[in-house]
Amino acid sequence: MGKKSTKRLSNIDNFLGLLLFFAIFVSLYPLAFIWIIVASISFLIYKYVLLFRKNSRNLKVLEDHFFIISRMKHLRSRHQIIFLFITLVTVSFLTSLTHNQWLDFLLNLVNFILILMIFLIPVSRLFRYLVSLLKQIPLNNMNKYWVEDIDTLTGIQFEQVLAQLYRSRGYTALKTNPTADYGADLILKRNNDKIAVQAKCYGEDKKVGVGAINEVLGGAGYHNCNKKVVVTNRYFTENAIISATRNNVLLVNRDGLIQMLNEFNERKYSKPVFTEENG
User: DSSP letter at 188?
Assistant: First the structure.
């Protein structure tokens, strides 16, 4: 058995041991359970406020609260499970205190949803990983790129094309883990720049919204990048453009992508092979 497997088993043993100790402690000291709940809630509030400071956001601005909440989905899976578990314990404690039938029903419903979410996190990661394996079709041997062909690609394939386009420009392009990219599909490196790239391959008439901007900001923070880029085969909403301008995110829309494709083809064939007009 390898070192990673041994470490994984060790982590599971530690978690189960801690869970058993917690159960015994609560059974022996029921009143201490209240203090555990208070401490857990205080910890969650502290971490929430800390995210504002880390991302240079203002607690008094409602838009910044939405941004921080959107950032939480880029937390590591174990951190998401810990957050949900603490919330579950808190709601369970409140359920034991209430004597109102409707409130009790509502809290039990919340409990069920939290348990379902804790179960679905590892299941969804496994599902995304399997889907990514099925969709990863090698594209490195393609000789020409046409924007109409780009429109038919899956998200994984679009990332592969972008990686090749940026490599042709002198960047080192690394694909992130598709099941845990934390908001960055590609990491580009050249000279002193480390760039997080979020790729969005959409169907016709669909625009890229603010969510993509929040994703790449999260990915840049996680991967310690000094620049952020969102690339799409379509266009951006007005709100996305405003958010990108405020957060210093470079946007590459369909027109910019066509220019990248033409430059790539020019370098390979010494002449453009595509314009939007001639198809």
Answer: E
Q: How far apart are the first and last CA of the chain?
A: 56
To the nearest 5 percent, what fractions of the chain are helix, strand and coil?
A: 65, 10, 25
Backbone angles phi, psi at 229, to 5 degrees: -140, 140
pLDDT value for 11: 54
- Global pTM reads 0.51
Query: What are the backbone dihedrals phi and psi of residue 115, each rounded to the nearest 5 degrees, phi first?
Result: -65, -40
CATH, range 147-269: 3.40.1350.10
d(CA 250, CA 243): 11
The number of beta carbons lying within 10 Å of the beta carbon of residue 57 is 16
Domain boundaries, the chain: 3-134, 147-269
Q: What is the pLDDT of residue 16?
A: 61
